[in-house]
Amino acid sequence: MIITTTPQVEGKKIVDYKGIVFGEVVNGVDFVKDISAGITNFLGGRSGSYEGELIQSRTDAINEMSQRAAEMGANAVIGVDVDYEVLGAGNNMLMVTASGTAVVID
Fold first, then answer.
1. Are 73 and 104 in contact (CB under 8 A)?
2. CB 87 within 8 A of CB 95
3. C-beta pairs of 93-96 under 8 Å, 24+ apart in sequence
4. Hey, how many other C-beta atoms are within 10 angstroms of the C-beta on 17?
């Protein structure tokens, strides 16, 4: 599966558009990560615990989008966009959404 943010795949011809496809992941941020991030925020520096959560959530959302595109009969997803949101009463949930257009390329 080719996944790209561009509107086409260089050197390939789009022969069929299957439609818009999404992958969504909502993950909770646990108490230990909150404490670790709070300390990092106070002392300065990067929050490895939050970065790891973000990387995993993004990977999962893109994989889910790719799987849904394959189920539609596509072999590529073009115009991919990844969005991040925080949810929940205490902003303790991370939602990552990947979207793009499922296509068949030749």
1. yes
2. yes
3. 93/26, 93/27, 93/28, 93/29, 94/26, 94/27, 94/28, 94/29, 94/53, 94/54, 94/57, 95/24, 95/25, 95/26, 96/24, 96/25, 96/27, 96/54, 96/57, 96/58, 96/60, 96/61
4. 12
Query: Each residue of 22-59: pLDDT tens digit?
Result: 999 998 765 445 544 454 444 555 555 677 888 899 99
Report the length, in residues, of the chain. Answer: 106
Dist. CA 59–CA 86, nearest whole Å: 17
Pseudo-torsion of CA 37, 57, 27, 99, nearest 10°? 130
Q: What whole-number distance in Å separates Cα of residue 20 and Cα of residue 61? A: 14
Residue 44 is inside which H or E element, if any?
none
Return the beta strands (E) in 1-106 as ranges: 2-3, 14-28, 76-87, 93-105
